[in-house]
Amino acid sequence: MKLFGASKLVAAVAGVALMTGLAIAQQPTFFRIGTGGTAGTYYPVGGLIANAISAAGDKGVPGLVATAIASNGSVANVNAIQSGAAESGFSQSDVAYWAYTGTGLYDGKPKVEDLRIIATLYPETIHLVAAKSAGIKSVKDLKGKRVALDEPGSGTLVDARIVLAAYGLTEKDIKPEYLKPGPAGDRLRDGALDAFFFVGGYPTGAISELASSSGIELVPITGPEVDKLLAEYKFFAKDKVPAETYKGVGATDTISVNAQWLTSAKQPDQLVYDIVKVLWNDASRAALDAGHAKGKLITLQNATNGLGIPLHPGAERFYKEAGVLK
Question: Which of 200, 277, 292, 319 is most deeply buried (CB count within 10 A of its CB)?
């Protein structure tokens, strides 16, 4: 009887352990992706990626629940990754480099040494959008004008200051406002603003809507000032917005940085490996191609371009297996 009782007890304990194990296995893993304002490019692209890698679809990472979260952009996302408020986030390559090295915007601040890259996504174009009535044909023409530079904590604000400086201007030379492209576009349409900066993939919804409803000018960012800027800041590259990307706007020379998907070195290697593997499968490819104009530029071949900071080990392992990284 004692032996029989002991057997029953062992069986019962084993059963509880099995059920507990199943319960643990079934608990979802949450993976937040910090993006940007809802009118920009980060937010819709983040939503596409979150849907692609989540387990809700049978081709996602088992047990993973990924969500795209609106934010103030690059700097805010780096801070969220550092603090643990988000597992990952999008950032401009310049901001990521400054954070990791403790230079530029992060000069005098502690280095964010745990910052790692999941993937380079696509080029982010610097847009300088002006009202047709403002008479702005060059960056130099911004002097004395009402110009929105985006919100504090955004990569756009950092780059706008660099561009202004390249042409010998500071915020004291303009009438600065600190607005996201959505509200900035509204003010420009209403005649309360002359121009605004936006860094993001083209076409972006807020600018497309503005071009269709009231017409805009895209101001070129080019000339010897830009050549000097490119020599000093290696994370910038020459870029061109094709004609009719925005209604009524001709081809416009400008510059760009890379959009990157970042995480922390503290995230498990296997989890990041699984996420990257799903990101580049056929189902995700189809979703990216169909979901947003920038989706076609998010490719495995570009994923390791212009890194600037280390890849996450889980991502690095996949890219080596896929043959895009030596």
Answer: 200
